[in-house]
Every structure is written in structure tokens, then in C-alpha cells.
Design brief:
8 helices; 10 strands; 36% helix; five-stranded mixed β-sheet; five-stranded parallel β-sheet; binds S-adenosylmethionine; Methyltransferase, Cobalt-precorrin-4 Transmethylase, Domain 2; alpha/beta; Cobalt-precorrin-4 Transmethylase, domain 1
Length: 225
């Protein structure tokens, strides 16, 4: 007879350490095991929170091999908390596979509300937030043009993540497909000391990042058609 414990997906700060919730701290300090995308990165946070729990790696390179093992441990009654390097696990980060397999195995799964980059970007963009699409990272090569065309035709606000090396190119491609006057908000280093949001037309955003080299982490929020 198995005792089914819980799988917790636990959001961690995307920059500002004050954004960890009291519940996240409690869940992490009560878990039997913490699965971390990078044990060194999460180790720094956990030490800062004075949490000393067994930790194992769970990242995109081992999630397929290790998921059954962790489901077995959950079936055995352990409570497992999953964290990624920053933000909410499962949002452009590992988490989905274990959540799906744990649910299939009849284990209770919950995600704590907490930090993620997409929601503050959307809400602070000033663009309609009643309905929106989240695209994660766009494909770098194959399928990129198709995805960009789909985004250009979308009526809802679209939110996506972009690396600093591609921000300018992506804004230029969007300006070609959507026209230069479509509204955009380019959100940089959210919650950090150098948080900065450039709001305006695609043409204005292109001009801004042609002059100021994009550095740091970015979320792009594009107005719908
Ligand atoms: N799980 C995370 C979340 O819930 O937002 C996302 C992880 S994904 C691997 C990392 C990307 O998220 C970055 O490349 C950037 O696009 C976005 N991101 C994360 N933190 C950010 C921040 N502080 N400011 C702006 N974008 C951020």
C-alpha cells in the first residue's frame, strides 16, 4: 500500500530575492527532496533562506531518464518540490513532464503562485491583458518565420521570451511583418536594479535598441492586430 505525497512546483525569484513567498519558503523547508534545474544556482538561494534539504538535479538533459524514478519516490510517499533557476518551473523551464507523469500516477500536484517573467511584463506593458498568448521562446531557425507570421496575425496581445542577442533582429522582423506602427513593450531585467521597459511602436523600439545594445534578460509584449 503506497501513501501518495505531493509534488510541488515552486516559483523562485526572477531577480529580486524579496519576491520569494512565505509559502514557498515553508514548502521548500518541509519537502523531503528538492529537484533543481541547477543545484548550484538553487543552492545559493536555499542557503540564503537557511534551507538545508536533499537536492538532486532535474533539468532538460535528464528529465526524460529520471522522471519515472521521481514518480516512484512520490508513490513511496515522499514530498518533492521542483524549482528552476528562476521563475516558475514549467514555464520555459523543466516541470511539465514530471507534473504530467505524476498526475497520470494519481499523485497530487500543485503549483504555488509566485514569480514568473511573463505576467509582470504583460501587466506593466500597458497593452490589453484581458486575453493574451504566451509563446515562450521563438524557434531560432526552423519554423521561425512561420511563428513570426502567426504572431503578426494574432488579435490578442502576445508575450514571448527573447535572448539579448536576438532582440533587435526579432523587433526588425516583427516591424516588417506587422508594420512599423504596431505597439510593443520590451521589458528588460524585470524586478532587478536595472529594470527598464521600452514602450512604443516597433519602429521606435528598433531605433532604441539600435542605439542601446540589448543586455540582460528580455520579455517582448506585442499588441494584437
Ligand atoms: N521560468 C521562467 C519564468 O517563469 O519566467 C522563465 C525561464 S526562461 C529559461 C528564461 C527567460 O525568461 C529569459 O531568457 C527571459 O526571456 C525571461 N526572463 C527571466 N527573468 C527575467 C527578468 N528578470 N526580466 C526579463 N525577462 C526575464
Amino acid at each position: 500500500m503506497y501513501f501518495c505525497a505531493m509534488l510541488y512546483l515552486v516559483p523562485t525569484p526572477i531577480g529580486n530575492l524579496e519576491d520569494i513567498t512565505q509559502r514557498a519558503v515553508r514548502v521548500l523547508s518541509e519537502a523531503d527532496l528538492i529537484l533543481a534545474e541547477d543545484t548550484r544556482t538553487s543552492g545559493v538561494l536555499l542557503r540564503h533562506l537557511d534551507i538545508h534539504k536533499p537536492m538532486l538535479s532535474y533539468h532538460k538533459f535528464n528529465e526524460h531518464q529520471s522522471v519515472e524514478h521521481f514518480v516512484e519516490r512520490l508513490r513511496g510517499g515522499e514530498t518533492i518540490a521542483v524549482v528552476s533557476d528562476a521563475g516558475t518551473p514549467g514555464i520555459s523551464d523543466p516541470g511539465f513532464l514530471l507534473a504530467r507523469e505524476a498526475i497520470r500516477a494519481g499523485i497530487e500536484v500543485t503549483c504555488l503562485p509566485g514569480p514568473t517573467a511573463l505576467i509582470p511584463a504583460l501587466v506593466a506593458s500597458g497593452l490589453p491583458s484581458d486575453r493574451f498568448c504566451f509563446e515562450g521562446f521563438l524557434p531560432q531557425k526552423k519554423g521561425r518565420q512561420t511563428r513570426l507570421r502567426e504572431i503578426a496575425e494574432e488579435r490578442r496581445t502576445t508575450v514571448f521570451y527573447e535572448s539579448p542577442h536576438r532582440v533587435l533582429k526579432t523587433l526588425q522582423q516583427l516591424a516588417e511583418l506587422c508594420g512599423p506602427d504596431r505597439q510593443v513593450a520590451v521589458c528588460r531585467e524585470l524586478t532587478k536594479v536595472h529594470e527598464d521597459i521600452v514602450r512604443g511602436t516597433l519602429q521606435e523600439a528598433v531605433a532604441h535598441f539600435t542605439e542601446h545594445e540589448p543586455r540582460g534578460e528580455f520579455v517582448i509584449v506585442l499588441a494584437g492586430l
